[in-house]
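fold-stage: in
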Amino acid sequence: MEKVLFDIKNHKVLPQEICNITDVYRDSNCFYRSLSLYFTKDGSYYNFFRQQIYKSSKGNLENHKEIL
């Protein structure tokens, strides 16, 4: 997972063409499951992506105050 984070942060993951539609489990984590599926080809790492986004947004709360 560290390599995935490194690639995302350094923009080494190239956008893929959307050619297949894949259903993910419909719960409150479906956005994170989609990210996990896109970047790792496995939707089971959704909790990792959720935690990373939470940590990033928590650290940048000043930048997001206008949204809140």
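fold-stage: in (second)
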Amino acid sequence: MPPIPTPTDVEQLAQELLNALAEESAGHGIEEALTQFTTHWRDAYARFGQHPAGELAYRDAWLSILEQVAPQARPRLKAHESGRQALHRLETLFVTPPPPRFNRHLLTQFRQQRGTADPVQAAFDRPLCIVSAPRAGSTLLFETLARFPDLWTIGRESHDLEFAFPALHPATRGYHSNRLNATEATAELSTAVRGWFSQRLHDRSGAAYRGFSPAARPASVRFLEKTPKNALRIPWLRAVFPGAKFIFLYREPRQNISSMLEGWRSRRFVAYRDLPGWPYKEWSFLLTPGWQALAEQPLAAVAAAQWQAANQQILADLEGHSDWMLLTYDELVADPVATITRLSRFAELSWDPLVERTLATPLPHSQMVISPPDAAKWRQHEAELADVLPQMDSVTKRLATLQ
């Protein structure tokens, strides 16, 4: 966690901004929003000071600058250099990475999918589901496998599935978690979910399944699915997609939790806002059982708890079954050809020249990369991780016996 400015520091910046705006702020709620911000900051500082457990509280106060103050203040500060500087310093109390690049093709496809009511229903043959903790490299693996001629995807993660079907949203279960069991996979819901995916399927060239005439559609499709919440949904996926196969992608905790910290702080992975029982505006990544107890913890402890819960649940749901394989992020990056070869044998996937060309050069960065990958990048969070890594030992030791 970066050093936290004192209440006096932020109050001075807020006053500089108000002085620059002068009477222009009247009627726009800026002064009230700044007062709420400084009050929230002062209360948090009295409670946490510089302790890492206060990071989420400070970030929560800071969000009011980004969401309520900056959009109204910026256009009124064109002639006020001191005011622009004060606003910039308030906006950058926490540094955030640049926003993700937009894939215009996928954006257009997503808009088209939202408007379709085509009742297509594909026959799913041995769907392939990647399960992992968040930020374990699953997007890189997904983007690599999506080049195989056998596989169909929806081109993105299926986060909006739980909004399309309220029975799948955690609100239905009192926001317990993202856990879904086979009991949630009723016959009616399972049919509807398969239809939802069928409407959105496309092959590696971008051709939509529903765009083919009924006679031209393949008799069955090999479906590739990847969403980090699926770490808690394996029994449900087995029930909805009989014959599904699972790829358990494991990333060692130092790198993985460090990347999750980066993800939380980037605000690119916000899953829920105004979560009942959570004292802050935003929650990122998957919702794990017992998440309410994390409110007073440093952000590193929150991310570590998510990593641990995801990997423990994946192991519990997969062990004793023959429908899965384990691979690690390290081996995927170090030797993608050997790793994907082994995976393709397990999944019974066909190679072709496009796959060969894809693997002939180093794998490109995935579209979800925040900063360039580096095996030693976790060291920037080394001090924060020191207290939580020993608690991950039970999972790492269990995984060591399976590799």
